[in-house]
Amino acid sequence: MKLKYIIVAVFSFGLFYSCSEEDLDPTLSQDKSIETSINTVNDLQSVIYGAYNRMSLTEYYGRDIIILGEIFSDNVYSNANSNRFVVEGKMDLNSESGIVDDLWSQLYAVIGSSNVVINAEDIEGDEAVINHFKGEAYAIRALAHFNLVEFYGQQNVNGGGETAQGVPYVTKFRDEESLFPARNTVGEVKQMAYDDLDMALSLMSEDLNDPTKEYITTFAVQAIKSRIANYFEDWDISLAAAETIVQSGNYDIAGKDDFLTSFSTDGEKAAIFEIANTPTDNPGINGLANIYQEGSYGDVVVLPNLASIYEEGDVRGIGGIITEYESGALRNTGKYPSTAPYEDNIAVIRYAEVVLLYAEALLETGNTSEALIWLNKIPSQRGASTYSTATKDNILLERRKELAFEGFRFHDLARTGMDIPAPDSVQQAHGGPAYGSYNFALPIPFAEVDANGNIDQNEGY
Q1: Could you tell me the fold of the domain covering 3-451?
Q2: Average pLDDT of span 7-33
Q3: Cα–Cα distance measured from residue 158 to residue 459, given in angstroms and rounded to the nearest whole number
């Protein structure tokens, strides 16, 4: 199925928002023109809520994008308890692997919903509110395209860089002039994401930021911008965006005593943007707690090498975020802790990440002393020793400690040009691919390549 029809198939549902993926599929009564169905600000709100809902599903932030970022690294491995993430743990996927197609399709579904909002015209209602919703849609579109290029772009394969093939940057819903979109370069995807984020900031108002943290705010836009700039080493951009957040005074780093409960407390002050989860959203056996924790499933287990980097007393290590069971297995039980109905919100951007983005950007722009101050704000709140110097290695180490199990580790290894470490030859099935290997990008789904002659398959597949 070519990309255009992936989008159409999942967005002909009209204006109805639901927490059920099945309810978002088209029905005869709902299969009507999106362009003529959005007339009021409430209509617009319904569609943007649908975009957020799609972000929450298993194929995106509900599970897969997080687990892939961990299983492709040196943080965790699959024990094949229910035979999930085994092939992913080997980094042995192909163009017909289900997760390859599901992730691609879901991200473009989110983008399609965003484009409906962005391109809606003649909407009745408060202009500032309409613009704020459109700004949220621009930010969602930027984030989804960035996530796509992280996983499917060729920037980390054979030194591809920003001139390598990225992904199609889709800006219209049902674009009859581009039914078979070609892949933009990685650099083009980056710039278009920046442009979308700048547009978001020009449309949104801080006064209209939702206090629940469950919708993108102006500060979340800045955080996304800093994250993207950090990935591409645009340090001045990353620094300015992160600085807006840290100087706002709106966020705090959770203290040691509050850190564990912060992952089961919705909308707390250490959160910038998180995906809402309610009992109605129950993902069943696909819930993150079911993947990480011991039980009937529990396929993803912590590697001893990760547990060993935490000092005794560090709330992120054993006895805190990590639990050591009688079997000797090490498990993430502190992040995404609630089992059925899995009602913990899922953090997309935490303030602690922004603090580390800021420290790295300060270091890379020559302000080493200030970088050290901000770097040490994290371990000082975790029961861990602080650092005597701010170095790239120390910042990456602290990122590994702080952001473990949240899907960042693989991308940190990739963006810094490192081989994937393989400290456990028994448990780690991927063997530690060297930087530049074809494994540093997923294959483009077969269905997409087969239908769209303008899209080439990635190297090695």
Answers
A1: 1.25.40
A2: 35
A3: 9
